[in-house]
Amino acid sequence: MRPVETAADLKSFIAFPYRLHRGDPHWVPLLRMDVRKLLSKQKNPFFDHAEIRYFVAERNERDVVGRIAAIHNTRHNEFHGDAVGFFGLFDCIDHQMVANELFAAAGDWLKQRGLDTMRGPASFSTNDECGLLVEGFDTPATILTPHNPRYYVDLVKDAGFHKAMDLYQFQTVSPHLPERLARGARIIMERKKITLRGLNVKQFAQEVEKIKQIYNAAWEKNWGFIPMTDAEIDHMAKDLKPVVVPDLVVFVEREGEPIGFAAALPDLAVALRTNPSGRLVPGLLKVLWNARRVKRIRILLLGLLKEYRNTGADALMYHWIWEKAYSLGYRWAEAGWILEDNAAMMNGLIRMGFDRYKTLRFYDRPL
User: What is the per-residue pLDDT across 148-182, written as a single tens digit (0 to 9) for each?
Assistant: First the structure.
């Protein structure tokens, strides 16, 4: 067990999961250049308020059998008033001793920083890919969601972790969401002078500013939520802009002022899986070619200001996105994740024809 110190160490850290998961048809091999950007202090604004340490477990000399990141996110602890550190980027062979050593290394590093709980997995926060898959192993992961082998669940539990929170994912293949729900919501919205509109790509920068107005306020009371900085939202928008489909982003406005938004992306995980090595050459061409054939979307963001959450606007946003997506040739949609204690959101999805099909889980362990 040792910390990542050199460029060669980092290269091994990045490469390990591509070797470990190569035979898993449901795992998503991100482009390695995107992983390097995520881990870069110079390119990822998350590092402006966080410190991260990477570790690798080795068998013999330079034979990596596990990896983990220990994450001290000061913004989380300031916002929640606690002393929680995170682990993420966890990958390991099916060997409890190796997993125990990885968790011990990450835990010791976090404890030295005065933290009393280790939570995860998160890479690097709830605004990123997070949670351990505990149900739904027989279905492929969507873009920006994790997938892991079944044995990871036992590795984590047997290392002394306990459940902190479940995150649910929902799916639908219905050609149309129930019109009666949308009709009722429209009546309410007409009374309250609420309107919907799509993304204006020609004014992308201004649209991002509107998202900033809504994002942190709409999610602030959610378990584990961490407000994003302007730099983080700008970074996310820049990364997603090349793959955004304007019809799959919708704003809710009241008398011209934004009060909510929702965004879906084509499920590019389908295309990424055609490049199992994650290498740029010649893999990128293969990914771009297969991206044109994607028929799946993931609704990854939907938020409303608190005072408008009982107006039916959430139903109308789902209705907008799925109707637009279906007209563009998409035939499957995922919504989520949704916190297990968010009964209102889950019940609304079920009424609209979605069903729960996957569970991700956060785990805690005292330090």
Answer: 999 999 999 999 999 999 999 999 988 777 777 77
Q: What is the SS3 string spanning 124-159?
A: CCCCCEECEEEECCCCCCCCCCCCCCCHHHHHHHCC
Query: Alpha helices, DSSP H only, in 146-258?
Result: 151-157, 179-191, 204-219, 230-240
The encoded tokens of residue 91 equal 């990958």
**316/312 Cα distance (integer angstroms):** 7
Intra-chain end-to-end CA distance of the chain, in Å: 19
Q: How large is the angle between the packed helices 313-327 and 179-191, nearest 10 degrees?
A: 130
Question: What CATH number has the domain spanning 172-357?
Answer: 3.40.630.30
Output the CATH code of domain 2-168: 3.40.630.30
pLDDT tens for each residue of 34-64: 999 999 999 999 999 999 999 999 998 779 9
Three-class secondary structure of residue 96 per DSSP: helix
pTM: 0.93
CA separation for the pair 74, 171 (Å, rounded): 35
Burial of 227 (0-12, 13-18, 19+ CB in 10 A): middle
Residue whose token pair is 């054939």: 293
- Quick one: which of 119, 3, 100, 127 has its CA closest to 53? 3
Give me the residue spans of the domains in the chain: 2-168, 172-357
